[in-house]
Design a protein that fits this description.
The chain has helices spanning about 1-15, 20-70, 80-95, 125-130, 170-220, 235-285, 290-320, 335-350, 370-385, 435-440, 445-455, and strands spanning about 95-105, 110, 135-140, 145-155, 160-170, 330-335, 355-360, 365-370, 395-400, 405-410, 460-465, 470-480. The protein is of the alpha+beta class. It has a five-stranded antiparallel sheet, sandwiched between helices. Strand 1 and strand 2 (about 110) form a beta hairpin. Helix 2 (about 20-70) packs antiparallel against helix 5, helix 7 (about 290-320) runs parallel beside helix 11 (about 445-455) and helix 9 (about 370-385) packs antiparallel against helix 11 (about 445-455). The radius of gyration is 52 Å and the shape is rod-shaped. It starts with a helix and ends in a 6-residue tail after the last strand. It binds adenosine-5'-diphosphate (ADP) and magnesium ion (MG). Adenosine-5'-diphosphate binds near residues 417 and 444.
Amino acid sequence: MKTIISFFIQKSKILKSLKFRIFVLVVLVGFFSISIVSESILANYHSRALSTQTTNALNQSRVLANHLVKTNYLEKDSDSALDIKEELNVFSSFFNGRIMVIDSNFVVVADSYNMSVGKYMVSKEIIGCAKNNSTVQQYDSKNHYIETAVPITDDDSKAVMGVVFLSTSTENIIDNVDVLRRKVGILRVALVFLIILLAAFVSWLLVEPFVKITKAINSVDNGFGVPEEKIPDYIETVDIMDAFSKLLTRMKTVDDSREEFVSNVSHELKTPLASMKVLSDSIRSSDNVPIETYKEFMDDIADEVDRENTIINDLLSLVKMDKTAGKPNIASVDVNLMSEQIIKRLRPIADKNNVELMFEADKPIIAEIDETKMTLAISNLVENAIKYNKPGGWVKLELEADHQFFSVKVADSGIGIPKESLDHIYERFYRVDKSHSREIGGTGLGLAITRNAILLHRGAIKATSIEGEGTTFVVRIPIKYVYD
Ligand SMILES: Nc1ncnc2c1ncn2[C@@H]1O[C@H](COP(=O)(O)OP(=O)(O)O)[C@@H](O)[C@H]1O
Ligand SMILES: [Mg+2]
């Protein structure tokens, strides 16, 4: 039972293979073309042989009719009667048929079979021939004979004096066609064998490049190495290989950046732990540590725990913001209200940094967004604007909208971002000044989170900055969420 099932599974697999289908197609096409060609050759031979025989019969009949006129055969009591009789016999044995001479009253005056002399002969062909003074020819395909009727016309008066009626057998043609058919049949069998071989070769030739591609792809190990083997057979397979190589390269880039990310994450997470280890070790190794020192060190350790916590939270936000991580929670949100709440929450930090925080919006904006994610994105921008500012500086959050997009502009009078860093600020863990950023509690993940949140909303972010003068971030988001 099992073997039967596996046989059918294997069979259906064969039926679905390109190689098998090409093979069958070539065999069918070859077989049909051979059949059509051989049949048309036979048919052509048949019709040509018929027309040759008809033409011959007509020509000979005409010659005979002329002769009859010249010898006045149809005039009664002609003494050429005997000669003509001889001629008719030669004629009829040459054509393997029967020849009759019929006068204008449709009475048979001569018959090579000697059966109908003196009788009336009124067939459609004979009457037609006599009436229209024209030759008539007819092929009886069922009984295999050709009938021709040629008028005997008086040279001077052009009057029809009688008809030469010839009926010849076409058996010889049929025999020839049969012989030819047998020969063609043998040739056909040989050709079919040849076509099967050809089909096997063609199907192998056409499919081989794909087999090679599969081999090449299978040979790629986990290291994303681009396959060495070139597959130049078809433009299409070369394209497939190119696309595959590109995909590999892209995967390699993704893999590299993933590795880099993991090593960055480990490094960032290990730094607070290392500090805590140093702090605790130094307390443990010394005796009689004053209580104030204990307190001071414990405060430092608590700070490091906070930092560790911040990094982990940022990492979690980043992962959640990843495009592949689930669907955003889209709802109609009052963007003005949302922005005011952000300002309200960040005002204490601004005050602490002696930075003036301003908000400006010219009209109410309702948009389809994920409020939590968008709040985080804008908060990060405003927070950066406050943190990378100067005492006495300002930060301005501005809202604008048209019928398609709303934009959030966060401008500051801070330290600015160097031109060469502008392209990198969205990278994970990228910080222009590592020590300064760390000092003020930065993880280098804020803008990465912001950018991911904006991309999730099919929006765009752009930054312009002048070092020492300030930075402006502009975010543009569709008012209606674009579902996939
Ligand atoms: N408004 C700004 N003014 C100056 N520099 C900025 C501003 N926003 C971001 N940066 C620079 O970009 C870097 C990346 O920002 P971000 O991803 O938020 O990380 P961080 O946690 O360091 O704030 C920051 O370290 C800072 O150097
Ligand atoms: Mg930040």
